[in-house]
Every structure is written in C-alpha cells, then in structure tokens.
Design a protein that fits this description.
The chain is mainly α. The chain has six helices and no strands. Helix 5 packs across helix 6.
C-alpha cells in the first residue's frame, strides 16, 4: 500500500529522524575513537573462518537494510495503520536512546565486531547492569520501529536478516568474552540477561 502524499510527509520526517539520530550516534562515536587512535571497525579482521563469515554476513545485513529502509521511506511503502506507524516512531526512538547510552557507557571499549588484538575492558555498570548487549538491543528496536512505520516485504526481509545476523554475532561475542575474561564474564552472565533484565540476588 502506498500512502497518499499529503499523509506521507510527517512519517517520512519521523522515520528519517530516527535513522539520522541512530547513524549519527554510530558515526560520531567511530570518528571520536578514530581521533584517539582506536580502530572501531573490527569486522572480519584476522578471524577464524566461522567468525569471519558471521561478521561479514552481519556487515552485509546491517549495511543492506539502510537502502531498504530509505527506499521504503521515499516511496511510502507501508501496510500498517497510522497508530502502528506512530508507535513505530517511539520504538525507533527508544532504540536510538538505548544505543546512545550503551556506546557512552562502553567508552573506549566499544568495537564493531570482535577485537583482533585490542585490549578492552569488561563493562558491567550503567546500562550494562541491566543488559549484556544494549547496543544490539538498540539496533533491534530501531529496525523494528522503522518496520512498523514502513512495513513492506523488502524492509521486512532485511529486518529479519539483520536481526538474525546480529543475534549470531552476539552468540559469537559471548564465546570471545568467556575466553577473554573467564570467571568475571561468567559471573556477569549469570547476573544479567542477554538482552534485558537481571536476576535477583
């Protein structure tokens, strides 16, 4: 369903805002780390075959979803009601907020992909006290929010692909963190859930 032009503009602005904020956070953090001599982008660098394949597919998914989202916005491809679309805006903004807080809390330990030789810290405070993977949660909510605003087959397929690949990356990073931080990470993993929540006591 293509929405009438007179009803399309507010949603185009809102969806574009969600994307601009999200990728603005990502690129700003990457630029600031580059200025400090930190290589943020670690996807597929010097890894074993399984890790390299997963990270490469994750990169394809997370880059490929951007033109799918933008095409949907430009051409107004949406099959949901106005209420769902407005809800999608707030879900997307929640994703932006969670992503922002996560990269701020991670400080200089934030990387895209598993670090090759970099020494990073295990961050367990701030938002990481309630989610082991808040940055990934932010990605998911942004994708779902835009999908609610512009629900169509193209965006839906890329959304599912991106979320599945990001989840596989999370599982891969858990193995790396277990090897890198041992009992400290295992204790943290026992206390805090993968995406949201923590165990009592």
């Amino acid at each position: 369903m293509k929405i009438p032009l007179e009803g399309a503009m507010p949603y185009r602005i809102l969806a574009s805002f969600v994307l601009a904020v999200f990728y603005g956070i990502y690129l700003t953090k990457q630029y600031r780390q580059k200025c400090r001599g930190i290589q943020t982008m670690q996807i597929g660098r010097g890894k074993d075959e399984q890790t390299h394949t997963t990270e490469t597919l994750m990169g394809v998914a997370t880059v490929g979803i951007i033109p799918a989202q933008l095409l949907s916005i430009v051409f107004g491809w949406s099959h949901l009601s106005a209420n769902a679309r407005f809800t999608g805006f707030w879900v997307g903004m929640l994703g932006d907020l969670i992503f922002l807080i996560s990269v701020l809390c991670m400080k200089d330990s934030w990387r895209a992909g598993i670090p090759d030789n970099d020494k990073t810290q295990l961050v367990t405070d701030g938002i990481y006290a309630y989610s082991r993977n808040p940055a990934f949660l932010g990605f998911y909510l942004q994708y779902i929010g835009v999908l609610l605003m512009y629900c169509n087959l193209l965006t839906g397929m890329f959304t599912v692909f991106a979320i599945v690949m990001l989840h596989l990356q999370v599982l891969q990073e858990e193995r790396y963190l277990t090897a890198a931080f041992g009992s400290a990470y295992l204790d943290y993993r026992h206390r805090v859930y993968r995406y949201l929540g923590r165990r009592k006591g």
